Structure formats: C-alpha cells, structure tokens
Amino acid sequence: VCVSICGDRFWVGQMGVALALAGQAAANQAFFTLYFLIAFLPTITAPLVAKSIGSGNTAEARQRVCESIFLSTIFGLCGTIFLVGFPRAALRLVLPPNAPAMEYAIPYVRLRSLSLLAALVSATGYAAYRGLLNTVTPLRVSVFTNVLNLGLDPLCIFGLSSLPFQGIWRKIGLGALVSWGGFGAAGAAMATAISEITGGMIYIKLLLRRKLISWSQLFKPPSWSNLKPLVQGGLVMLARQAILNIAFLSAARRAQVMDPSGVSAAAY
Fold first, then answer.
1. In the Cβ-directed half-sphere of 220, how many Cα atoms lie within 13 Å?
2. How far apart, in whole angstroms, are the C-alpha atoms of residue 168 and residue 179?
3. CA–CA separation, 105 vs 87, rounded Å?
4. The model's pTM
5. Whole-angstrom Cα distance, residue 249 to residue 89?
6. I need a surface site. Which of 42, 85, 210, 264 has the fewest CB within 10 A?
7. Helix (H) or strand (E) holding 162
8. SS3 call for 99
9. Phi, psi (deg, nearest 5) at residue 133
C-alpha cells in the first residue's frame, strides 16, 4: 500500500498542480476510511484459519475464508456503490462542500472505489496465507501488483503521450493513438484499481489451488453460528479502526480547510 501510494503521489505531483495532490489526498482518505472499517473481517480471518489448520481441519479453514470473502463482497459492493454514486457525501468528511480540490477528488474517488472489493479479497487472501504461516506468497503478489501499479501510473495519468520515441510512433501511423493525454490525476486511481483487481484475481486462483475456497461455498450465506466468532473477534478491531479513522479524518480535514489553494493539503 505504501509503495503504490508513494508512486501515485509522485506521478500526480509531476502534473505541477497542488489542487490535484490535495484532491488525491482527500479521495484516498475517504476511500481508506471506508476500507478500514470493513477490513476487520479479513484481519480476524488469520487466527481462525491458523486454529483450524493447526487442528488438521482444512474444511473448517475453507469455511472461514469463504465466510470472510462472502461478507467482504457484500460490504465491498455496498461501499463501491456509495462511493461511485455519492462521492460528494464521502468526500465531505474531508473537504468543505465548495472546496476547489473537489474537482479532482470526485473522479479520483469514483475510479479508486472500483478496487474496494478486490482489495478486501486480497486482504482476506493475505490473512489466509498468514494463517498458513506462509508470508512469501503474499509478498510475491504484493511485489507484482505494486510494480504493475508503478508502471501503469504514468500511462494512465499522462496517457500514451508519455511514451518515448513519439516520432517513430507517428511515422508508423500510430500518431493519433499515442497523442492520447490520459485521465489526469484520476489516472493514478485507475492504475491502482487495475493493480488491485489483478491482485484479487491472483488470490482467488491461489486460494482455489490450496483448496481454501470453493465456488459453491463462496456464494452461500453463512449462518449466525458460523459468523459469531468472526464478528465477535472483529468488533475489537472495528473499534480500533474507527478511533484511528476519526483521528486521521480530523487531521486531513484540518489540512484541507486551512488552505483552499491546496498547497498545505498537498504538503500534508
């Protein structure tokens, strides 16, 4: 997460527009506030999987992972619909209603929200592998998706016009194609969404291979008796994330309000 965010900020910073960085920061804060309030489900999956695997009960471990993904899918879809349909409502947690940075934040948070479900699936996959005491596989997935994100950033932000050898492209008849100017600051969100969705699909494939999920159980609503340990264990994490997010939101909003030009928010 830190590598991709730093890469996104670097390339958006190359635009030379402080408001673009301010809008990106506000959109990311709104996105992560929602994400971390849901991500308590994957967090609590790791010890449950470890307990099941330790007792030799692979079926129970598979059930726990499928339950977590099922709930993450429900909450993730609701969160995506909210951020895509009502971006201003989410962004007003950070930005004043008429903030100049809102122009950049709205398209950014809409594109960024497309990765919410995939990010939750990836978090569940990471937690499941952590429960297996395997941290190498998640590391490889993270390296791949971060490299993908860093590679897509300049293309999605500045378009194909950022490619080298523009003269050669035009000589072979691809001048119109390479003149595409990209999505601007929102392109960083597009790059992140593509890399997150790729990571989510990789984890689904890996979990199927390890028999830690099955298609039939993924779409089966869990019973309350099965959900109870997941919810009870997650409430403590949810309370922790809520407290942290209140602090982060307060600081981010303060930085945005004190300077409408976006310079202070970009520095923050």
1. 14
2. 13
3. 9
4. 0.85
5. 14
6. 85
7. none
8. coil
9. 65, 30
How far is Cα 67 from Cα 65, in angstroms, rounded to an integer? 5
**In the block, residue with structure tokens 């004043």:** 96
Q: Helix, strand or coil for residue 88?
A: helix
Residue 224 main-chain phi, psi, to 5 deg = -65, -35
* Other Cβ atoms closer than 10 A to 146: 18
Identity of the residue numbered 138: P
- CA dist., res. 194 & res. 115, Å (int): 7
pLDDT tens-place values along the chain, 268 residues long: 567 778 888 888 888 888 888 889 889 989 988 888 888 777 777 777 888 877 878 888 888 888 888 888 998 999 999 999 999 999 998 888 888 889 999 999 999 999 999 999 999 999 888 888 899 999 999 999 999 999 899 888 887 665 554 555 565 555 555 555 678 889 999 999 999 999 999 999 999 999 989 888 888 887 777 777 667 767 777 777 778 878 887 888 887 777 777 777 777 6
The encoded tokens of residue 192 equal 């992140």
Q: Helix 186-209 and helix 116-131: axis angle, to 10°?
A: 40
How far apart, in whole angstroms, are the C-alpha atoms of residue 174 and residue 166? 9
Place of tokens 């202070």: 264
Cβ–Cβ < 8 Å for 131, 48: yes
**214 exposure class (CB count in 10 Å sphere: 0-12, 13-18, 19+):** middle
Maximal C-alpha separation, the chain: 67
Q: Return the closest-CA partner of residue 128 out of 188, 63, 81.
A: 63
